[in-house]
């Protein structure tokens, strides 16, 4: 059979609010003899100190995804304008063919795709991408030098790959070099442009992973030439590149320049009927990328970003909580007419979102599986008021729910026909006190717990997160639970969680694809930190059910299993939550073809800017 289409979503792990927009440059002249036209410069923001790495194999956050997707390419991608989401070839010439048993996948690469020019190649000229590059790129997942950070993506899924990883790890421990040329029985190069992957079982989600940025294709020459500096000297096949190492100024901004040797690729000729209202269909068949440069500016605080957008020095933004009422009616959640008259365009994007406050299950205070430990986490959950958080910081636009499965996915507690779970959703201070006593703590006549030490709470640095933490502290004060807030940069937050040092932490997960299996994988024990199981949750019976659902076709049996796993997690309470957001996007009329999505991030190549628009500052 041939893989035709699939739903897909991307990965987000981040704390607080995300914003993506860019730099502060106006109309510039192109450099070079005989060129007089203005550069098309797209100006976008990013609400963070920026990515920690530009190496796909080391990336794990939305911020890294947003940048890496401009520089590198995967085998397949999402169709930009189609909803529901569908896959299409990107580096592939066609979608892979799959054997009848679902285990053997054959791929054929597109010919004439070249890596960007780089000093790592002879003469500095980028060479053509070959099948061996895909195998090499995926083998990097197993290399201990890369901390096996994203090994969970393919762990146990390709015949012989785990054995290869173990053998090579032993070589490295013995002081020998990791051997990228050693064969993996389930990874077979058939020619310059063809290769085959043999799966250990017919995993339903393998197709979705082919579009994940961590499986982007990189050249071996660059990794070996630049070593640890490869993170800042990317060499891919993408539509944009870093023209110079100085284009990435850590913590400030990053600048992407059009790849002058990008292959012939065109704006999509498929769209949805509603897209015509915005003119998204008009550039069909036009050569991409459409802009010459993409300037991304980093904003740790939301207010400076908002002021830059209001000053028209950014082409788009998402709406921070403090600005919502400036732009939208609180009652209708629609753009105010006075704002619409300025030509500003808005979009509402519901997210497959899992916002939570996570516990480290290996921590001696808040972790563990004994009844008392579980009761403590349930008490903390019962003391939190998610509805107040929603109203105060999301204007009531988010969905508060139980379990790790967000709205829109099979197994969501409020889905049609789904079994309702037990709930520890607060605020229920009386029940929280009962749980604290059950956990073995003393609660006084004033209703406050007396002998529970303060809990370290790790969250992102910034004014909004400080306010959200203050709200949590007010909730917890009702029963005497105390927090010790640890405000850190996002990179420090990731490091603390990955190293199992964060006792209690604020995070969010955006589903990689619209299948609850992706969210349930967050609690699978082989995925513990630094993998995606940041809770370090480990239950043998849960693992057995997760391994079963990976090959289960959609249907009532799988739904029932999802619900059982969901309810087990709610009862064990390795986190408190959850909530799913609706993101509000704004853009000025000179930004063209912008159909906001947080399902994938390589859409920048389709965007255009009208540099001569009368309202755009010169």
Strand percentage, roughly? 15-25%
Structural class of the secondary elements? alpha+beta
The DSSP helix count reads: 16
The helix content, as a percent range, equals 10-25%
Poorly predicted regions are 1-35
Tally of discrete structural domains: 2
Q: Choose one word for the global shape.
A: globular
Main pleated-sheet profile: 7 strands, mixed
How many strands? 23
- CATH homologous superfamily identity of the largest domain: Periplasmic binding protein-like II
The N- and C-terminal alpha carbons lie at a distance of 54 Å
What do we call the CATH topology of the largest domain?
Answer: D-Maltodextrin-Binding Protein, domain 2
Radius of gyration: 25 Å
Question: Which whole number gives the mean pLDDT?
Answer: 90
CATH architecture of the largest domain: 3-Layer(aba) Sandwich
CATH class descriptor name of the largest domain: Alpha Beta
């Amino acid at each position: 059979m041939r893989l035709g289409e699939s739903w897909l979503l991307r990965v987000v792990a981040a704390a607080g609010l995300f914003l993506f927009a860019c730099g502060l440059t106006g109309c510039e002249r192109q450099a070079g003899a005989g060129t007089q036209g203005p550069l098309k410069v797209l100006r976008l923001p990013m609400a963070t100190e920026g990515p920690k790495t530009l190496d796909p194999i080391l990336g794990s956050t939305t911020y890294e995804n947003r940048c890496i997707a401009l520089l590198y390419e995967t085998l397949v991608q999402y169709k930009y304008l189609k909803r529901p989401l569908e896959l299409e070839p990107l580096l592939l010439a066609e979608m892979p063919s799959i054997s009848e048993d679902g285990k053997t996948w054959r791929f054929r690469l597109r010919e004439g795709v070249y890596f960007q020019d780089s000093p790592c190649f002879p003469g500095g000229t980028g060479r053509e991408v070959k099948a061996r590059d895909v195998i090499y790129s995926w083998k990097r997942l197993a290399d201990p030098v890369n901390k096996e950070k994203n090994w969970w993506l393919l762990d146990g899924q390709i015949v012989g790959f785990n054995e290869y990883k173990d053998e090579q790890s032993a070589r490295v421990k013995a002081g020998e070099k990791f051997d990228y040329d050693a064969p993996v029985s389930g990874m077979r190069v058939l020619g310059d442009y063809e290769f085959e992957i043999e799966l250990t079982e017919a995993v339903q989600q393998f197709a979705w992973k082919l579009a994940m940025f961590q499986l982007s294709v990189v050249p071996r020459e660059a990794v070996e030439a630049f070593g640890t500096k490869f993170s800042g000297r990317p060499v891919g096949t993408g539509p944009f590149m870093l023209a110079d190492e100085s284009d990435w100024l850590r913590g400030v901004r990053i600048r992407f320049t059009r790849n002058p040797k990008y292959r012939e690729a065109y704006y999509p000729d498929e769209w949805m009927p509603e897209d015509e209202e915005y003119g998204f269909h008009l550039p069909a068949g036009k050569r991409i990328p459409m802009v010459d440069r993409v300037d991304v500016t980093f904003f740790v605080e939301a207010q400076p970003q908002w002021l830059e957008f209001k000053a028209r020095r950014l082409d788009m933004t998402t709406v921070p909580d403090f600005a919502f009422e400036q732009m939208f009616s609180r009652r209708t959640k629609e753009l105010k007419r006075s704002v619409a008259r300025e030509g500003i365009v808005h979009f509402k994007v519901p997210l497959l979102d899992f916002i939570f406050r996570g516990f480290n299950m290996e921590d001696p205070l808040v972790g563990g599986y004994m009844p008392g430990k579980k009761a403590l986490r349930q008490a903390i959950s019962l003391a939190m008021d998610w509805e107040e958080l929603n109203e105060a910081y999301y204007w009531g636009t988010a969905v508060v729910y139980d379990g790790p499965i967000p709205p829109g996915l099979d197994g969501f507690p409020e889905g049609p026909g789904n079994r309702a779970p037990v709930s520890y959703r607060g605020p229920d201070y009386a029940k929280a006190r009962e749980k604290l006593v059950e956990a073995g703590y003393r609660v006084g006549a004033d209703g406050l717990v007396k002998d529970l030490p303060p809990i370290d709470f790790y969250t992102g640095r910034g004014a909004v997160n400080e306010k959200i933490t203050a709200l949590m502290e007010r909730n917890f004060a009702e029963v005497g639970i105390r927090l010790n807030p640890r405000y850190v940069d996002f990179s420090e937050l990731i490091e603390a969680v990955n190293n199992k040092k964060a006792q209690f932490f604020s995070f969010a997960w955006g589903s990689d694809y619209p299948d609850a299996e992706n969210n349930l994988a967050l609690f699978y024990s082989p995925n513990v930190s630094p993998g995606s199981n940041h809770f370090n949750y480990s239950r043998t019976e849960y693992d057995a059910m997760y391994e079963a659902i990976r090959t289960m076709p959609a249907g009532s049996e799988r739904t029932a299993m999802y619900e059982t796993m969901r309810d087990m997690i709610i009862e064990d309470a390795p986190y408190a939550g959850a909530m799913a957001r609706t993101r509000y996007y704004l853009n000025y009329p000179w930004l063209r073809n912008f159909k906001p999505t947080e399902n994938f991030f390589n859409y920048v190549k389709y965007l255009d800017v009208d540099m001569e628009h009368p309202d755009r500052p010169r």
